[in-house]
Write a structure and sequence with these properties.
The protein is mainly beta and about 230 residues long. It has one domain: Pectate Lyase C-like (3 Solenoid). The chain is built from two helices and 19 strands. The longest helix is centred in the first third of the chain and has 11 residues. The N and C termini lie far apart (about 50 Å).
Length: about 230
């Protein structure tokens, strides 16, 4: 059984992966309630088998519950990614650690490093990212297109080769109790069209090379933002 097939089988059953290293030979897609769990402590490592441009290692594409499901008591079946370390090749332009194009997604205790974009959110509804480390990617977090009710809590976003976070467009995005530090460019760049409801709450900026927050239009609401900003 290939590593991809093994990972998809674990995602289907929800069983934890053992410690060790797994090679991804094509983007691994999790959808509609799949749960990919590594061993506690980040000892389960995923790597792309070869460089590939503009593709994610993990593709999260869950669909949002229908209005009828919500009205008649159907609960969202969250797709879960947790307790993993994703290491990119460091050579492919547009290589993503994970890409979100869906709804009802939870990402917890995942470390992404050495990718072009650590985490990319191209279309995201009701997504929560908790206790994650994104470090030493070209850009650690990239947010584009309509994003709503997307939350980052307890995250460390650090040591990007360029900017820590690039937010081109989005609505109702919250960074809470997080650290944005030691990125070579700007800690967070916020520009583009369609930006509304962006909040930083209890966020620490430190030692970002070109400044902590680029927000030329005053679009970001700040509550308890500290550090060098």
């Amino acid at each position: 059984m290939s590593d991809n097939a093994l990972l998809l089988e674990h995602a289907r059953t929800g069983a934890r992966l053992p410690p060790g290293e797994f090679l991804i030979d094509a983007p691994l897609t999790l959808a509609d309630g799949g749960a990919l769990r590594g061993a506690p402590g980040g000892s389960t490592i995923l790597r792309p088998a070869q460089p590939a441009s503009h593709v994610p290692v993990i593709n999260l594409v869950s669909t949002f519950p229908s209005p009828a499901d919500l009205i008649y008591g159907g609960l969202p079946n969250y797709t879960l990614l947790c307790d993993l370390k994703i290491i990119g090749t460091g050579t492919a332009s547009g290589e993503y650690g994970w890409m979100v194009r869906g709804a009802c997604i939870r990402i917890e205790r995942v470390h992404v490093t050495n990718c072009h974009y650590g985490g990319a959110f191209v279309w995201s509804v009701d997504t929560a990212v908790r206790d994650c480390l994104l470090s030493q990617n070209y850009v650690n977090i990239y947010i584009n297109d309509t994003i709503t009710t997307t939350r980052f809590s307890g995250c460390n976003i650090r040591e990007a080769m360029a900017d820590g976070i690039r937010l081109h467009s989005g609505q109702s995005v919250l960074f809470d109790d997080s650290i944005i530090e030691s990125n070579r460019g700007v800690g967070m760049v916020c520009h583009g069209s369609g930006i509304a409801g962006i909040r930083l709450r209890d966020v620490w900026f430190e030692n970002n090379g070109v400044g902590s927050l680029y927000d030329p239009h005053g679009l970001v609401k700040r509550e308890g933002v500290t550090g060098t900003h």
